[in-house]
């Protein structure tokens, strides 16, 4: 989808005209209504009068107008309730309505979607990126790629004084939306087509295109580095593990970098603690944290943000092979701590332990790990919010704000020292499961914290938000969650 920004006084040249209304607003209030033909105005006003279209109920309606034009009526509900979250969903509704009615191009009066306290640049970015997200299709494995319609063009019509700021927001939104969709492509690709080696190759492509330094450690190099946690998890698979290192230097030479760490389990069977059939489906998406990190680095480089950012992705398959690690095994991690394996299906935290220790060498400003870590987090928060864990209240507040602004919504869960005993090992230093079946998302975070005490650190559990659900206005499959909040942090972290 291509975007243009135009003065709202200029006549729209697109096939579709989008008219958005809050409850009780009359048709004529819309600044683009003057461009509707007299005959089409009669249709619009009849729908309003007959209450066939209700702006107060968030309804949508399409009018087949004169000269092959189409008018898309979008109800926004009560204006007093309007905020940036509603603008996110409105942008997706507009796009999906255009797709359903095969409208190739649309003009939108952007300022009719304005939210209190939201700048025109941020509004433009949000609307742009969410239209890009809603327009996404994953059809690489379909013979007939033309069966899924996409919108070619969107014009954002704004007042003359907002042209510059809106244009800036659109450029950012295009980049962010495209990179989230790239993360979705990675997440949607089947495990047989997205092995650790192939994921590392995708990271190299991102690096090559965006001038990011990418280094990939192979098994022998990881053995030399004594990354026993990653190597232990990978032993059951015939696929060699990879440790992906991405380095973007946009700041000053001596600026402490952000380090983003992403879980890259390209397929998770559970290992010898084999998952039930219904839990194994979708486990090619268990590398979505790694996909978010790779894609966020690509966006940060494209936006030329003035910061230094490192990306670390431990990539493995967790398979129940004859050489696979066992319950009861003790893995010596890069930190020197021994990890007591109680369950081979708690593998994500194990590989992240080595990555978090590796992050120490960068003397980081902040480390953020993103992982599809626990079903327990999904039970706690559902599919609308990812779990946020950090011992630092100020950092937590900043992350919550970044999540709210970016659209990767977060909710903080406790990481109190009282939980530390849950992961204290009997024969090793730390065990990879809690001592009870309760609070699994918290004990997983507490496990990670044992390897992240030498720098400011945040853990984001994206298990629940990994794939799209009804009501989000997104295509089925991976959501690219985590990508946007990492970009927002790199842009505005204080």
The main sheet comes to: 9 strands, mixed
CATH topology of the largest domain: Aminopeptidase
- Estimate the mean pLDDT confidence: 97
At the first level of CATH, what is the class of the largest domain?
Alpha Beta
Q: Give the low-confidence spans.
A: none
Please state the CA-atom Rg, rounded to the nearest Å: 24 Å
**Classification by helices and strands:** alpha/beta
Number of helices: 14
**Strand content of the residues, in percent?**
15-25%
CATH superfamily of the largest domain: Zn peptidases
Protein topology:
Blueprint: E1 2-7, E2 16-21, H1 38-49, E3 60-64, E4 70-75, H2 84-100, E5 105-109, H3 120-134, E6 153-158, H4 163-188, H5 196-210, E7 213-217, H6 219-224, H7 228-234, E8 242-249, E9 258-262, E10 264-268, H8 277-280, H9 288-302, E11 308-318, E12 330-332, E13 338-340, H10 348-358, E14 366-371, H11 375-381, E15 386-389, H12 393-406, E16 410-412, E17 430-431, H13 440-449, E18 457-461, H14 483-492
Parallel strand pairs: 1-6, 2-4, 2-5, 5-6, 9-11, 9-14, 10-11, 13-17, 14-18, 15-16
Antiparallel strand pairs: 3-4, 7-8, 8-11, 12-13, 15-18
Helix pairs in contact: 2-3, 3-4, 4-9, 5-9, 7-10, 9-14, 10-13, 12-14
Account of the protein in words:
This protein is α/β, with parallel strands linked by helices. It folds into two domains: 2-159, Leucine Aminopeptidase, subunit E, domain 1 (3-Layer(aba) Sandwich); 181-492, 3-Layer(aba) Sandwich (Aminopeptidase). The protein has helices at 38-49, 84-100, 120-134, 163-188, 196-210, 219-224, 228-234, 277-280, 288-302, 348-358, 375-381, 393-406, 440-449, 483-492, and strands at residues 2-7, 16-21, 60-64, 70-75, 105-109, 153-158, 213-217, 242-249, 258-262, 264-268, 308-318, 330-332, 338-340, 366-371, 386-389, 410-412, 430-431, 457-461. The strands form three sheets. Strands 7, 8, 9, 10, 11, 14, 15, 16 and 18 form a nine-stranded mixed sheet that branches. α4 (163-188) packs antiparallel against α9 and α10 runs parallel beside α13 (440-449). It is elongated and about 80 Å long. It starts with a strand and ends with a helix. The mean pLDDT is 97.
């Amino acid at each position: 989808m291509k975007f243009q920004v135009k003065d709202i006084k200029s006549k729209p040249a697109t096939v579709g005209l989008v008219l958005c209304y809050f409850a009780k607003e009359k048709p004529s209030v819309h600044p683009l209504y003057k461009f509707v033909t007299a005959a089409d105005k009669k249709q619009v006003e009849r729908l309003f009068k007959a209450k066939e279209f209700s702006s107060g109920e968030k309804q949508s309606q399409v009018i087949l107008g004169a000269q092959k034009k189409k008018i898309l009526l979008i109800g926004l509900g009560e204006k007093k309730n309007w905020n940036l979250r509603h603008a996110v969903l409105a942008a997706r509704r507009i796009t999906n309505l255009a797709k359903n009615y095969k409208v190739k191009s649309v003009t939108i009066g952007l300022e009719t979607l304005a939210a209190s306290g939201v700048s025109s640049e941020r509004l433009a970015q949000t609307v742009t990126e969410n239209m890009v997200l809603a327009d996404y299709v994953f059809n690489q494995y379909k013979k007939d790629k033309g069966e899924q319609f996409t919108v070619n063009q969107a014009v954002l019509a704004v007042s003359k004084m907002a042209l510059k700021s809106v244009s800036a927001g659109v450029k950012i939104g295009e980049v962010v939306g495209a990179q989230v969709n790239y993360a979705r492509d990675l997440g949607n690709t089947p495990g047989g087509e997205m092995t650790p080696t192939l994921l590392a190759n995708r990271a190299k492509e991102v690096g090559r295109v965006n001038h990011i330094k990418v280094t990939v450690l192979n098994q022998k190099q990881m053995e030399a580095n004594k990354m026993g946690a990653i190597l232990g998890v990978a032993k059951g698979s015939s696929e060699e593990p990879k440790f992906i290192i991405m380095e973007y230097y946009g700041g000053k030479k001596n600026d402490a970098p952000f380090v983003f760490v992403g879980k890259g389990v390209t397929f998770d069977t559970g290992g010898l603690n084999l998952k039930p059939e219904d839990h194994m489906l979708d486990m090619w998406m268990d590398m979505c944290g790694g996909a978010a990190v790779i894609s966020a680095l690509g966006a940060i480089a494209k936006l030329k943000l003035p910061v230094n950012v490192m990306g670390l992705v431990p990539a493995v398959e967790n398979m129940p092979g004859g050489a696979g690690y066992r319950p009861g095994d003790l893995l010596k991690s890069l930190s020197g701590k021994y990890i007591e394996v109680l369950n081979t299906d708690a593998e994500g935290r194990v590989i992240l332990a080595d990555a978090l220790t590796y992050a120490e060498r960068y003397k980081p400003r902040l480390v953020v790990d993103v992982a599809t870590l626990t079903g327990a987090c999904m039970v706690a928060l559902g599919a609308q919010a990812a779990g946020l864990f950090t011992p630092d209240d100020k950092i937590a507040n900043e992350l919550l704000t970044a999540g709210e602004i970016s659209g990767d919504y977060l909710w903080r869960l406790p990481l109190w020292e009282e939980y530390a005993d849950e992961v204290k090992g009997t024969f090793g230093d730390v065990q990879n499961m809690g001592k009870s079946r309760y609070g699994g998302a918290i004990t997983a975070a507490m496990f990670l914290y044992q390897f992240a005490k030498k720098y400011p650190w945040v853990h984001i559990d994206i298990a629940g938000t990994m794939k799209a659900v009804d009501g989000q206005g997104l295509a089925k499959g991976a959501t690219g969650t985590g990508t946007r909040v990492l970009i927002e942090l790199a842009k505005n972290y204080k």
